[in-house]
């Protein structure tokens, strides 16, 4: 398959290793992966803060950049949900760019969706000998309805012990601009989530969105808990060879 990587703003600027992990993983599974350098923000931040017209322009740009691919894979439930769920509402039927949105948006997948629903793979040959717990981020849980897709993939990682996260369906408090507008509430929610993570005894907290991991990880780090946060893609890209080489230690 000819697949495009939609890296997303947070990953491009702060977590480039996640994008590299996606490319490594998909190539290992036989996909041809492109990275269109003209890609920009999906517009979620703009739309969520009331700048609808800017969101429309970014939606049209997105569909131009990613036209012609068999699939577009994003290491973010949040941004994938924006494209699939919000673009058809932003660019209304009959308006300029509506046909492109109708063509491209359904081909945009969060990573675990693409692996299980498109490639039909639940064992990607990963190896990660650590105790891990998984946080289902709000957009992946309520927007994309990923269900058990991420945990099915994690359960098939050799050496990995997956432990359930208490109150897993509770928001971590990040919420993009919510954390800026309501910092005290956001911090309290993050502290609650961090306590749930510590209750599991996990070495690593995993999620499908680095924005949420950044928020929870900040709390865990300030408390010097020693718990690491890792994106799902990075765990799935890990192999026995890379682990022995120190990349997944």
From TrEMBL:
Residue ranges of domain Cysteine-rich in the record: 3-83, 132-216
InterPro entries cross-referenced by the UniProt entry: Cys_rich_dom
Organism superkingdom: Bacteria
Pfam family, one: CCG
Protein name, entry field: (Fe-S)-binding protein
Organism: Nonomuraea guangzhouensis
